Backbone:
């Protein structure tokens, strides 16, 4: 039984990249490694669509989020964040941890924030210097229109910084950092970048780099000041995750070869094909604004998560993600983020049908697979 991973992180790692990362170790302070690092720095700018620096930190995506919170605030500055899921909530937890005066916008899970809601908070609180947003909320599979929000916020408040959690959106959704005037974006290696967990990639707009350089970070290991200084010398402040950075170079080459615009389109098509499949089975989608990275689906009435998930795992070798927080045991989440193609979507729909049938759910066998397959045939061939 071949194991198949359909979680929104970690995501599958291409076989050729696994082999390349298994090569003999090299030292991180010599020319061999610096060539890999330099290539990653350049290719990451293409990924984020920016001319600004993108630093590589050894840690999960949360470490990138923490590096930003701990490094961008001056005395007396305040923040606003949007809590619409576990990872929007994480911005708030980090801000509280670093004792930043903070205003929270609470949204129902599955409902994205609007620019008018953010602007209202900014009008009421003139000391707010930074807005923290989540582009693709992994826990709810919800997409937020970062482009519209940022451009409208910047029009009224040009000095306010917009910092984005792009952990499951970078590589799956259109994202143009410079054109959209984003001040910082963070992602993780185990998502759209198709390599194992352990790297956070933080893109920092040049104007924010200048601000960061004027005061000392509250963090030692996650200091963006130190990371940016090392970046300018094509180096890292601490011992980096050497094998992961080697893998990162080749993953970024795969993305370049396909073309970033085609990568975005592929994710949109794969995501929609899954949504067509599950709705054809009579299942209800969770999010009002679906993400290209992951699709959460309500479990049918009377179907137990543990039984359903156990069949997927033990009978078919399929690993998916369950619900989080208040939706634990109530929804399941299917990933289409990173190293996936059309046949993977057909495979996961067939597995979902098998597990639902084994769990006692009544439906027409093959309806989900057919809906997914038809959509893929109609759209991937264009």
Residues:
């Amino acid at each position: 039984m071949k194991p198949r991973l359909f979680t929104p992180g970690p995501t599958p790692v291409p076989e050729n990249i696994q082999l390349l990362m298994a090569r003999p170790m090299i030292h991180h302070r010599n020319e061999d490694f610096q060539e890999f690092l330099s290539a990653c720095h350049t290719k990451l700018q293409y990924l984020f669509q920016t001319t600004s620096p993108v630093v590589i930190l050894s840690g999960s995506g949360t470490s990138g989020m923490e590096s930003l919170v701990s490094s961008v605030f001056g005395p007396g500055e305040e923040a606003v964040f949007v809590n619409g899921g576990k990872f929007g909530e994480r911005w708030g937890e980090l801000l509280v941890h670093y004792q930043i005066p903070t205003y929270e916008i609470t949204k129902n899970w599955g409902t994205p924030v609007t620019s008018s809601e953010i602007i209202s908070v900014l009008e009421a609180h003139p000391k707010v210097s930074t807005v923290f947003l989540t582009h693709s909320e992994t826990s709810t599979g919800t997409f937020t229109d970062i482009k519209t929000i940022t451009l409208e916020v910047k029009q009224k408040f040009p000095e306010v910084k917009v910092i984005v959690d792009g952990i499951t959106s970078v590589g799956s959704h259109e994202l143009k950092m410079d054109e959209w005037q984003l001040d910082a974006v963070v992602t993780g290696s185990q998502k759209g970048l198709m390599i194992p967990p352990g790297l956070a990639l933080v893109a920092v707009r040049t104007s924010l780099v200048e601000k960061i350089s004027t005061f000392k970070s509250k963090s030692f290991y996650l200091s963006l000041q130190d990371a940016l200084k090392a970046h300018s010398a094509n180096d890292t402040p601490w011992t980096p995750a050497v094998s992961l950075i080697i893998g990162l170079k080749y993953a970024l080459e795969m993305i370049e070869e396909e073309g970033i615009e085609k990568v975005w389109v592929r994710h949109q098509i794969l995501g929609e094909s899954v949504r067509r499949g599950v709705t054809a089975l009579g299942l209800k989608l969770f999010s009002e604004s679906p993400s290209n990275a992951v699709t959460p689906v309500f479990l049918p009435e009377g179907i137990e998560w543990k039984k359903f998930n156990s069949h997927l795992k033990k009978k078919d070798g399929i690993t998916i993600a369950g619900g989080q927080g208040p939706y634990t045991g109530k929804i399941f989440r299917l990933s289409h983020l990173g190293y996936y193609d059309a046949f993977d979507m057909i495979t996961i729909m067939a597995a979902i049908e098998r597990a639902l049938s084994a769990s006692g759910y009544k439906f027409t066998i093959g309806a989900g697979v057919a809906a997914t397959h038809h959509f893929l045939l109609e759209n991937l061939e264009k």
